[in-house]
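In this section we turn from sequence analysis to structure. A common task in structural bioinformatics is to predict how a protein folds when a small molecule is present, because the ligand can shape the pocket around it. The inputs are simple: the amino acid sequence and a SMILES string for the ligand, here zinc ion. Study the lines below before reading on.
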Amino acid sequence: MPVTCGNRRRHPDGKPTAHATVAAVRACYLAEETWACGWQTALTNPEDGEQYVVECDGLSWYLPDGRGDTCEYGHEHINAETRHRERWDYAADEGEAGLLAGRGIRPVSMRGGSIDIDPHAMRYAMSLPG
Ligand SMILES: [Zn+2]
Ligand SMILES: [Zn+2]
């Protein structure tokens, strides 16, 4: 349920007047820096099957522990340093996930969840020297 936010000057284009979460309203007032998310989602028009891309205009801010940034709709991006330290990384597809897993790095989907692993790509990565 949207949460009303009166901090308009912080909002991209002076809108919206509500955020998706209480955390986002808090960030809107307290975060040193906020910006429009820009997360791109590919959608298909059911009418003509045409693909198009929409950009998320949700409020984004840095996570307080320095791990990365997030937006009010949960588009989280953890920075490379943190990913390296925690031994995981983003994978765009099963093949990339397999290559990461074969190197002992836990693959995570671009949306932050689990992802299927291509066993062939994983075996290939394990067969590489170093
Ligand atoms: Zn706000
Ligand atoms: Zn977003």
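The mean pLDDT is 91. As an exercise, try to locate the residues that line the zinc ion site and compare them with your own expectations.
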